[in-house]
Q: What sequence folds into this?
């Protein structure tokens, strides 16, 4: 399969944004497909494309940011890797004062543009941001998947998927595979080399140069720690102790890793009912292949040690990653959270819509299921009351099964089998 033929599910959303917004920002990790998406956006329209990773282009932008931003008023100016010259955002604002037509600018950033140290302009009201992730499993299969919509409608529709053909061993293959478009077809050894070089590049160029973070030699050990404890709660004191670094420095490193899209944070969920909730986020790496490479683990090794925290956490992190990708195009506007109370009751993932309705998900590495696997979801259902729409255990078995009031067991592959 050629990655160049893969249709990105976010493309219609990006086209809609460009049609109405003066600035469309394409944001996401390096090599996640942002530039390819931009060229698809610019197809059949008057446009000019410039890349600030080019030394000469960057020098021109730094020398005359106002002139650079105003160089192509008759069409769309696409500026790749704008975090390299953050002052251009102010110049774009000035250019829009003179000409605010839709589609005036398309910009990309491999860092969170709103967190750039030198960024004094948010372009609020002028810019829509489109988040681009590495490929989803649905995109790999040519499916526009939407598990969020399916999960919210499950109790009403009761339309359960057919038996899944995916075996438990295949889930571990998926949960340790990289999804960067350029290398999905490469041999595993080539992928590992590319991923190591990728981490080195992001740390040296984006973390060090863009965010001016000191002691960047601590970044890779921090990533290795998070990779070894996938989908675990972030406790700054424990992290600092494990790496022998000051506790006060941990939030800065975590923030930088989030802002360059290497790390994903899953906030804790709670409302007035769940006053016993413990408010610590979970963290996981954004690409399963990076986590597996840093851990030095394989799918076979995880399956042989299926009862380990690493095996279960790896599958949980994979599920969170797939849901985070689908957020960008799902028909349901949802946020991702997790829940745990002081008594040890917990639910791995919570989807919450703007009406504060929730769907709870627990992820199990087991291929068989019983009532004990629903303990956390049952507790959450009783606490949340009418806000609780459905509770789902995603597992490595093959059958979709009802397990009581608003409770279901589904194969993990349901994530990408629903469109």
A:
């Amino acid at each position: 399969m050629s990655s160049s033929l893969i249709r990105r599910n976010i493309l219609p959303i990006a086209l809609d944004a460009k049609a109405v917004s003066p600035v469309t920002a394409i944001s996401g990790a390096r090599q996640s497909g942002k530039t390819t998406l931009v060229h698809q956006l610019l197809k059949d329209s008057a446009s000019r494309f410039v890349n600030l990773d080019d030394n000469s282009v960057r020098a021109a932008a730094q020398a005359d940011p106002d002139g650079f931003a105003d160089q192509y008023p008759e069409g769309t100016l696409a500026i790749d890797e704008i975090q390299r010259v953050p002052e251009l955002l102010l110049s774009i604002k000035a250019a829009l004062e003179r000409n605010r037509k839709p589609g005036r600018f398309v910009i990309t950033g491999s860092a969170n543009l709103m967190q750039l140290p030198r960024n004094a302009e948010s372009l609020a009201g002028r810019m829509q941001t489109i988040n681009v992730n590495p490929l989803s499993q649905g995109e790999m299969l040519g499916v526009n998947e939407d598990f969020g919509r399916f999960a919210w409608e499950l109790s009403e529709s009761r339309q359960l998927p057919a038996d899944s053909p995916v075996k438990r061993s295949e889930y571990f293959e998926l949960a340790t595979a990289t999804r960067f478009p350029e290398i999905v077809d490469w041999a595993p050894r080539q992928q590992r080399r590319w991923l190591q070089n990728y981490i080195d590049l992001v740390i040296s160029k984006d973390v060090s140069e863009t965010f001016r973070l000191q002691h960047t030699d601590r970044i890779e050990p921090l990533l290795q720690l998070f990779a070894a404890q996938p989908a675990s709660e972030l406790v700054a004191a424990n992290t600092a102790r494990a790496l022998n670094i000051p506790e006060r420095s941990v939030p800065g490193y975590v923030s930088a890793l989030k802002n360059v899209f290497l790390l994903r944070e899953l906030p804790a969920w709670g409302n007035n009912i769940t006053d016993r909730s413990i408010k610590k986020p979970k963290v996981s790496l954004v690409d399963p292949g990076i986590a597996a490479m840093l851990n030095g683990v394989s799918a076979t090794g995880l399956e042989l040690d299926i009862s380990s925290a690493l095996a279960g956490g790896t599958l949980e992190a994979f599920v969170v990653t797939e849901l985070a990708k689908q957020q960008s195009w799902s028909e349901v506007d949802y946020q991702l959270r997790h829940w745990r109370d002081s008594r040890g009751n917990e639910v791995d993932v919570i989807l919450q819509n703007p009406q504060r309705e929730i769907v709870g998900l627990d992820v199990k590495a087991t291929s068989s299921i019983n009532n004990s696997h629903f303990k956390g979801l049952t507790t959450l259902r009783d606490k949340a009351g009418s806000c609780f729409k459905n509770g789902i255990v995603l597992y490595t078995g093959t059958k979709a099964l009802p397990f009581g009031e608003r409770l279901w067991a589904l194969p993990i592959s349901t994530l990408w089998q629903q469109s």
